[in-house]
Amino acid sequence: DAGVTQSPTHLIKTRGQQVTLRCSPISGHKSVSWYQQVLGQGPQFIFQYYEKEERGRGNFPDRFSARQFPNYSSELNVNALLLGDSALYLCASSRGAWTGSYEQYFGPGTRLTVT
Amino acid sequence: TQLLEQSPQFLSIQEGENLTVYCNSSSVFSSLQWYRQEPGEGPVLLVTVVTGGEVKKLKRLTFQFGDARKDSSLHITAAQTGDTGLYLCAGERDSNYQLIWGAGTKLIIKP
């Protein structure tokens, strides 16, 4: 079975631009979570979606938004990019919403560089 | 402010040695997870602990959840070069669906 897939793998954008990152969960998984991992730090939670509804939001500005589609894939959008948005963006899928009860499987991430 | 403090931040030891890494917090977690992440990849779940005092073993890796569910440790016996990686702990709190992550321990096992 295919694992979590993310696209693109790498992306270079300029300050002020907008970016859309995509994630396809493992077949049968209804929950998708997004994380930002800055170099040298652990992941920071951005959003969780379950059954196409937002179930959790981390401490990120409104420039960050996401949505989940009927096929459970997801997009993360970031507007008005700042240099500090440069990071590895990770997507994780799981069968259910509670991360303590359902194992999360991570994709390889999208490396975003903002210049 | 990091709610989960991991120590040490970096550890480099010889193959065959034992080691322990720690994950500490002043907050109580309903569950705590340990992950290993290799360069260019996402984290991979190693274990989830949910009960205070719980000990879980995964081959040469032993995980312990503190009695008060505020801290955890990972002990590796007879480390191998394949154990090299970034070890992350992440805790879930009852109030929401968020996982709170530590900054990680970068482990290098030298042959």
From the structure above, extract its key features.
heterodimer; A: mainly beta; Immunoglobulin-like; 7-stranded mixed sheet; 4-stranded antiparallel sheet; 0% helix; globular; B: 111 residues; 6-stranded mixed sheet; 5-stranded antiparallel sheet
Q: What is the CATH C level class of chain A, in words? A: Mainly Beta
Order of helices and strands of chain B: EEEEEEEEEEE
Q: Strand tally of chain A, please? A: 11
CATH architecture of chain A: Sandwich
Largest interface summary: A-B, 27 and 25 residues
- Structural class of the secondary elements of chain A? mainly beta
Number of helices of chain B: 0
In CATH, what is the homologous superfamily of chain A? Immunoglobulins
Give the tally of structural domains of chain B.
1
Main sheet specs of chain B: 6 strands, mixed
User: How much helicity do the residues of chain B have?
Assistant: under 10%
Describe the structure in your own words.
The complex is a heterodimer of chains A (115) and B (111). Chain A is mainly β. Chain A has a single domain (5-114), classed as Immunoglobulins (Immunoglobulin-like). In chain A, 0% of the residues lie in helices and 50% in strands. Chain A is built from no helices and 11 strands. In chain A, strands 2, 4, 5, 6, 9, 10 and 11 form a 7-stranded mixed beta sheet that branches. In chain A, strands 1-3-8-7 form a 4-stranded antiparallel beta sheet, with no helix packed on it. In chain A, a hairpin with a 5-residue loop joins strand 7 and strand 8 (74-78). The mean pLDDT of chain A is 93. Chain B has a single domain (5-110), classed as Immunoglobulins (Immunoglobulin-like), CATH 2.60.40. With 111 residues, chain B is mostly beta strands. In chain B, 0% of the residues lie in helices and 53% in strands. Chain B has strands at 5-7, 10-14, 19-24, 31-37, 44-49, 55-58, 61-65, 71-76, 85-92, 99-101, 105-110. The model of chain B has no long low-confidence stretch (mean pLDDT 92). Classes of the chains: A mainly beta (115), B mainly beta (111).
